[in-house]
Amino acid sequence: MKGWVRGVFWLRCCRKRQAFKTLSGKVDVANRDEQFKNIEKLKEEYKKEGNPVLSMDVKKKSF
């Protein structure tokens, strides 16, 4: 059974994926500190007005 499944995948050009290490996510952004200061300022303004503040951690996906 195992060989048959492997054969079907081979016929459909399905292979194990190769993992590649990239440094694309570790690029230094010139104004990174300024961005965080702006976010902090906006967050404080929203809190003072009584609005809720949500925190989201998102990662850039590259294809």
Descriptive notes:
With 63 residues, this protein is mainly alpha-helical. The protein contains two helices and no strands. The radius of gyration is 23 Å and the shape is elongated. The mean pLDDT is 77.
> Into which percent range does the helicity of residues fall?
40-55%
Choose one word for the global shape.
elongated
Supply the number of helical segments.
2
Using only C-alpha atoms, the radius of gyration works out to 23 Å
Tell me the structural class.
mainly alpha
Question: Unreliable stretches, pLDDT < 50, 5 or more residues?
Answer: none
Tell me the fraction of residues in β-strands, as a range: under 5%
SSE string, helices as H and strands as E: HH
Mean pLDDT: 77
Distance between the termini: 34 Å
Q: Strand tally, please?
A: 0
Major beta sheet, specifics?
none
Keywords for this structure?
63 residues, mainly alpha, elongated
In short:
This protein is mostly helical and 63 residues long. The chain contains two helices and no strands.
What topology does this entry show?
Elements: H1 2-11, H2 32-48
